[in-house]
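Readers outside the structure-tokenisation community will struggle with the description of the input data as it stands. I therefore recommend that a typical entry be quoted early in the introduction. An entry of this sort, consisting of the sequence and the corresponding backbone structure tokens, reads as follows:
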Amino acid sequence: MKTVNLIPLIFLAFGLLFFSSPAIASFSELGYATTTAVSESSPESIGEYRDESAPKISYDRIDEVKKKCKSVLSSASELKLDEISRDLRKAKKRLGFRYGDWNQDPGDSPILPFDSINSSSKPLNLVSFKVTDLDLPHRTKKYIGVNGVLLLAITTFNELPSFRSYGSREFELWPSHTQLKISFQGIYFENDDKERVLCMLGETMLPSRESDSSPWKWVKDHEPPPLLQDDQILLLLRNPKRFTLTNRVIKGELKSLNQSPNFKFFDKVSLFSQLGKSVSYDFVSNDLVSKACDPYPYKNETFISNSGSVDVYKSKRFCDLLQRVTSRAALTVVPNWKCNGTDEFCSKLGPFASDGDIKSTDGSFKDVKLYMQNVHCQETDATTTRVSAVFRAVHPSENLYISGMRTGLSNMTVTAEGIWKPSSGQLCMVGCRRGEANACNARVCLYIPTSFSMRQRSILVGTFSSLNTEESLNFFPLSFEKLVEPMDMQNYFQSTLLHPFYSYSKLSEAGVILEKNQEFSFGTVIKKSVLRFPKLEDSDDYLSSLSLLAEDLTFHTPAFTGKRRGSGTNLGMDVLSLGSLFGLFWRTSNATTVEQSGPYRTRAQYTEKQLLLNVSAQISLTGEAFGNFSVIYLEGLYDEHVGRMYLAGCRDVRASWKVLFESADLESGLDCLIDVVVSYPPTKSRWLADPTAKVSVSSRRPDDDPLYFSPVKLETTPIFYRRQREDILSRAGVEGILRVLTLTFSIGCITSQVFYVSSVTDSLPFVSLVMLGVQALGYSLPLITGAEALFKRKAASAAASYETPSYDLQRSQWFNVIDYTVKLLVMVCFLLTLRLCQKVWKSRARLVARTTTQEPRKVPSDRRVLLRAVILHALGYVLALILHPARTERFNEAFGGYAPAAANWWQTETEEYIGLVQDFFLLPQVIANFMWQIDSMQPLRKLYYLGITLVRLFPHVYDYMIGSVPDPYFIGEEHEFVNPNLDFFSKFGDVAIPVTAILLAVVVFVQQRWDYDKLSQALAFGRFRILPSRSVKYERVMSQPIESEMVSGVSNRRDDEE
């Protein structure tokens, strides 16, 4: 036989080592980036594509433009180019707009088709315009050449593309979105009416209509659109020069210059937008503001009755705070819970238009939102600040995100201007519907509270009230608010001069709930003495300790009701205040008292009163609806001894105005007759208790009350605490070192076997190649897949920490060093195992060369060993597949619908069973020893087979002793080698697998100490014999060749026979 060349194997292993992890990761990142680039244009749109890297700038139609725009150009005045030439970029931006509105005159010639899908969202007509060039070198006294791009769209969910993507198609259509890009060239001039006018001619590829009865039949049939080249499109835009309360609307017209029978003809399109922040606002509406706010401050009875005694912001830098609070944030509209009038009156949405969608809410205004846009704030002096803004109401059926970017003015918008003074903290404004001077019939009063309570959870509070006594225009005062989020408090109040605070008002009710739910039993006593729950810890100061505890008490996780695990909801528990701490992880604005300063140290014993902490929080539920609430405001007590919160709750009731008015026990429109109990899992000894949080919500109202709801009991998936997350991260490094140590020990065991077989060449052929093959397979898989065979479950869990993404661990230099070291050691184990295989193969080849044809059984063969091992493992694999449904059912009971995908379960089982085969690596050797009937021969060194057995069993023992913390954030994720939730590392497996592997090692030890006859007699029970009688014995051929002797074919064998 020829010598096995190890040099290619070495190069192969080194290649696997250096390309398995970082290199492949980099390729995957490139692949991901490519995939992302493709997915950004994933909606397969249809239309003609023109690849343009930049907008086309041309002025070859200026003469034609002057003819078509003759009627409006005649009113042009002499241009003052100072503003334009001073800042050309700003001048172009001032003439454009984004997310305006458009509508088309009724007729038979629509301009755009729309492929609607089954969705409750309302499609929006949006338009954007941008000036791409101003031809200053060729200007005249009255006009300047201009180029621009207009984007016309009908969309339900999608944003308008950026004008930077000039290479986009002129016409695009996909379900729920249609857009048309038109390129224009024309002239810019100013008239005597103080307007900036753009008159332009455009060209594009228009979608063609087929007939008047069904113009867009090809859309329904999903056919490619017939497109028509059209350059007879006229655009006329009028921008006001001054930006004021009632003078801000940008108006435009888009007309076709073709005649009606032509398929290129379309009915006139009207465009609407408004001036934005690129234009300076003029505060000149003092008379209108005085109409609403004189005398200042206005006595707002609605705010006083709803909020009670509330402190409001009265410090400096009001403009900065207002911008932070209102920036792209939707405001909540409060129901008309105090209204007592006709149904029409109480269903009005304040000064906004109340169409069918609004009236269908019956005064509850459920899912109706409000945006405060285009805020201009100017501090004129130390005592007065002027503010201008636009309030936009959003229908429940509109896309909230896109509606927040709209700029068009309609019946659902109110422009406002007013003043704020630090003496009162009230922002009083006059409101004009659609920005029209004859519609300024509303007053807006707005406040930024700095004190919070159970009934006051808003960072912004405001009301609309009517200035008109006429019945048709009058409306009930409409309140709105922006609810505070605990994590956002530090973004709002950044100044150390201001100290917002929380006032507890429901502690007595919480005490009643505590007494009702605190049961005394032997189990409770054991629980208090054995288990430990989140509590105050030693820290730099008292506030820091409170902040760390508030972090542990905050969680966001899936939750389920009872045994119904298939569908669940997302449960969020956010702590707003804890003790004297207000705002999570927020210390700069929290007042520091004498008792809070200095290091804080916990005491060994506390009184029962000292163990109860005041707490304010809120529960948010998304997904499945429970009763009529999605957010519950909470206030009560937290007991550190048992890890429970006893809370009184309030919910925002979204019921008919009649129901709300008849409910006399509402507190500021909130239903506060709610009991909530939150039970937290222990921080230690988690094997003694369920590591899930439990939430119980119940109503104290009678069953026949309209606001009553059935009790709700929720159970979360297992949750982590801060210390446990830190332990997981630190444990990952410890386990990496353990992998290095165990692999180093494995190298020593294999090396000892290599030297051992050199001295016992007679026993060398009786080493099973199947056993060595199983080990080689176990060492090669990590090099190919990048997964470490040892502690794979622990490494996966460590990389899946609560708030630290796995890629952060992978990129960590320390983890990379461990990763490379492990792969290097695995490669050494692989090469040493191949060396053992080579020695066994060569020794058998020498036996074959020294054995006659009449004595074939003197040479051991692994064929039948492999066959029997495969049969046994096949039976075990089938058994694992049969038991899979039962394990999956138990897993679903624990974690609901978050189990791994059913399509990959067989792959997961296969990967897990490969690990089990490696744990039972001695099974082929046991089978071979029985088949070959060895007599006290010792082919395996005790250090080798006992040492490798210990290495394979160490992860199971480690897992059983340390215990694994369930990771709810990696439930169902795919792992490279074994699944950390449905693998053989279960508690039963951690016991059964080591016992079986040790039993195999004991059998090998006995086989190598006793001959076959003695072993057969020992396993005989009367006439029943476990082992069969001796057959033809595998005899040893006495030969002591030197290690360098090589066998080279049949010719050598014939020489030996001669």
Notes: The radius of gyration is 39 Å. The mean pLDDT is 77. The chain has 29 helices and 30 strands. The first strand starts at residue 97 and ends at 104.
